[in-house]
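Hey, can you fold this?
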Amino acid sequence: MPPRPGDRRALDVLVDYEAIYPDRTPLPVPVVSIAEDLLGLRVHAAPDLGASGLLAPHDRLILINADEPLERQRFTIAHEIGHWIVHCGARTGTTNATLCRAVSEESHTDLREREADSFGAELLMPTPHVYEAVAVTGANVDILAETFAVSRQAMTWRLFNLRLSRGPETP
């Protein structure tokens, strides 16, 4: 069974970023700089947000929950960038809807949320970089999670989706 594809648009964003900022280190992916410097979105951490994050496209603003671990905040930013690129027309901000990444797992049944998660995973853990890292270190979830500055859970799922492990419960 082939790997589950990521979102090619996330890789395109990385290519655009690296073309403008070739001297910046590719890993961990500088997600805040991508949001702010490349896409012109402001990122703000707020306590007691009531969600992991949200995108207010009309304000070009990503709010993230300051009470969550840094790795989760990074994934949330990448997820909200996914909403910006995939659902908002990115350059035009064609929607006024506020898109929210809920804390609960129920959001995973919503197609737009799954698309933003797929985009976020590809942005933070780009397929070519994951394959390269696994070739060097093996599929060691702890080392890979640290290298990509993501949670152990996010890396476990990424390895599973790329068919580099047997399942999320057995990396």
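Oh, and this one too while you're at it.
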Amino acid sequence: MPEVQIRSAAAGDLSALMAIDHTCQTEYVWQMDVLHEEDQMGAIFREIRLPRSVSVLYPRPVAGLAESWNRRWVVLVAVIGKQTVGYIRTTDTILPHTAWLLDVVVSPRFRRQGIASTMILAAQSWGVDRKNHRAILEMPSKNNPAVRLAQKLGYEFCGYNDQYYDTQDIALFFGRTIR
């Protein structure tokens, strides 16, 4: 793994962060099956292999990243040498005692090298420093690499929202205790 430095983003980082390719490639997606019966209801997510690899578009406008500075969101950036290679946004204003982690983005050239894991661990540390006891990772159901990363880091499925993103993608939520 290349030597990665994680630091708080500065306003001057914004253009570099927005220029990162936010799409991901996957051969799998998570399909939701909903059960509605008189005495029970539920949803099951199944991993489905696609007939070919697809490019998954990012579920929210990248230009919205600029709003982070106005909403008290913390943006951490990953830097290798002098190059900004990724970022993660986090806040603890959504749920009490919970660090909410979203927008885990790494430049395609630097993916699968531990950078996203490093950023998530840094965001968890930020959450612990702010007296949070839980972390929630949010991702679209089409982003199988993010689902697998969450599971690898000890996060467990804890919910979904089928009308979360403007793109109509289903949001999956994975949580874990942090201390």
